[in-house]
Each structure stands twice: as C-alpha cells, then as structure tokens.
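hey so u asked for the seq, here:
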Amino acid sequence: MSVIPWSLRLIVFVLSVTLMEVNAQIPLPAKKYSKSVLLIGGTSHLGNGEILKNSAIGIRNGKIDLVLTSIDIRLDTSKYDTIIHFEGKHLYPSFIAPNSRLGLVEIDAVRASRDFDDVGNFNPHVRSLTAFNTESRITSTIRSNGVLLAQVSPKGGIISGASSVFELEGWNWEDAVLKIDDGIHLNWPSRYLKSNLNDKKKADKSDTEYLEKVELIRDFFFKSRAYQKASFHLESNLRYEAMKQIFRKEAKVYVHANRIQEILDAIYFFDQFDLNIVLVGANDAWLAADLLKDRDIPIILRRVHSLPMHEDDDIDLPFKLPKILSEKGLLVALENSGSMEAMGTRNLPFYAGTACQYGVKKEDALSMITLNTAKILGVESQVGSIEVGKDATLFISEGDALDMKTNKILVAFVAGKSIDLDNPQKALYRKYRAKYKEDVH
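ran it, structure tokens below
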C-alpha cells in the first residue's frame, strides 16, 4: 500500500502508477487498473444533492465500493492499494453532455470531417454508434473540464437518427460505449419564420408548410406502429425496424422544439402514442410547464449562455430558465447547442454555475449536469452520482468545478481507470511558453 500526499508533482506519480502514457496530441487510452484506490480527506459532491466533507471514496474493479465521511468511522486503509489524500480539493461525478456532436465532427467547415447529418428526412436507422470517433482532438479538451461522458447525437432532417451514450475514453466505439441506441432524435418543424410575421402571404405559406411536415411525421409514426403490430413482413423496412425499440419503450424520443406552439403541438401529437418523450431545446417550456409536468416529460434545456429567442423576452430569461422549470417540479438537464457546439461542450459546467447565480441551489445545479442527465438518458444505475455500486467515473478539482476561475481538474477516473488530462491546447500552451523561456511547470 502506498500513501500519496497531495502535490501537483506527485500527480505525475499517480498517473505513472496507473501505467498512463502521455501523448501531447491525442492522449493514449488508459489501461485497466486492477489495484484499488482510496480517495480521502476532501469534499465530495455526490451529484444527488448531498455533500460529504472529509470524505472517503473507495474504488475497486472499476466501481465505487465505499462512500462515507471518514470521521464517522475508523477506516481500515490497508484494504486499498493506493491512497490519495485530497484535502482542500473537491470530488465530483463526471459531468454528462447530452445531445452532443462530440466524435461526429472535427472541423465544421470541412465536409469530410462532418459525420452527423445524413441524407433524407426520416432516418431512425442512422446510428451515431459506429460513426463515433474516439480519436477526435476535441474530446481531450472537453475532458479537461470534467466532461467524461456524452450522449452523441446525429443532427439534420426530421428524424436525425439514434444517439448512444459514450465514455470519452477508449480505443474505439466498442470500448467507449456505455449505452447503445438510447433514443431517436425528432426535429419538430418550426411554425413561423421571423421574416414572415409581417407578410400575411408568406406567413400563410409558412403555416401550410408546417402543417404538411407535421402530417408527414404523423404518417411516419402511424405506419411505424402498424409495422410493429404486423406479425409477418414480406420485406423488411430498415426505418420501421429501427422504430421497434421506440414502441417497445426500450428507447426514447428526443423531441427538439423551442417555440411554445411547437412544444404544445408536439405534446398533443404524442398523446396518440404510448412513448417515452424528452423535450430538447425547450426555450418556451416555461409557458407549458404545468402541461409538461402533467405528462411527466423531462427537459434537456438549450444552452444557458444564449440571447433570448424572442425580442420581448426578459433579457435574463435563458439564465433563469433552469430555476423556473425546476421549481415547477420538472426534471431538467443542461446541454450545449448552437455553433461550435462540440468544442463549446467544455463550458457545460459553467452553464450550471450560471444557473446557480440565478437562483438554483449549487448541488441542484450540479445534478442538472450529472444525475438528472443520467436519469433522462437511462444510465442512472451506472453513472451520474457517487454511490456504491456505480462506475467510478469521477474527478478531483482544485476548486469549485462550476466556477471557471477555480475549475482545475487534477485527476480523473473513467470506470476506475485514471485518464490522461493532457490535450493539444495544453501542449501548444507549453510550447509557446517555452519559446519565450518561461517556466512551463
């Protein structure tokens, strides 16, 4: 058994114990660590609203096997091969990025590096699973802020395809996948275009086009349901086959809608089907909060760091939405959407930090990017909080991980494997500091 006092220099030793190798460009995947680890002395934020000060968290065989306050009981530390003291530091479960293009795009302006948008309007058979690229240079920059898990989702069309949940660590998608095909993504049509509001002819045309698209969705879902009920098919239909898991409630329908009329239309549309629905985007969800609560529909809320969608909205509305919706009793998670989405995922913890400044309790805000997200994605039995029996996917931060000034990830584990937190941006930082002969350590 080795006892490791905390210092930045000795972190290198911890990583070497776990047989990690440093690659300045794309870090090598971690090797499985068979020895047990005890993290002791710091403050643990469990992700379920609880905080343990002077905590003791045990890791064995990739799972969490001990969660308690070390002052409550005399610990037998001899049961653990490695002990890490993290007094004055903070331990968190992994942040989880839902509705992300991580691993599906490298450079938005280069078509060959974009693998998230397929041809056609109805593509439930298209899967992010086999397209996920573990070699992405973006991923390591995201891990450096504590985002170690992501729901990787296709985009485009009306039904974009099926997403899967991945650990951001591994040689290939088979290594990284945590949950296969957790749901399909439906982009509900937009009812109004802003430029059409003052032109009745254009507005009428836009409305007609909207209703036609909704009818296409209705037709597809009714035909898909009829296909599932048939006991024999002369020919298999890949699209309808892919909908089986939806009608069996083995996967969810992630409905992307923002405006109130679109949200209401989508809710009433799915009253015709017994399906598990999640609302994504949800800018106007506060106007339909009671209806969403009645239908028990959870929300993945669009990027908090945004401008209001409507010109007469409160300028602070995007910042206030997490509090407004959570106070209505809705299950709320936070996402990063918009341009530069994949790279911007690193800001996910700071969206939760902003929610704190606008009335959400800090541990509840943490849950919005950990346990709440895990519940919505259906992986709460494995990840999302620091609890005995769950995967040891967690990290230690120098300070408050929801504050951009103190978020400094020192050590991170994915399923009990200590991962390399280096990335190309850090490598470039060291390179150009060295050029001007500054201290790079």
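The longest strand covers residues 177-187. Residues 6-24 have pLDDT under 50 and may be disordered.
lmk if thats what u needed
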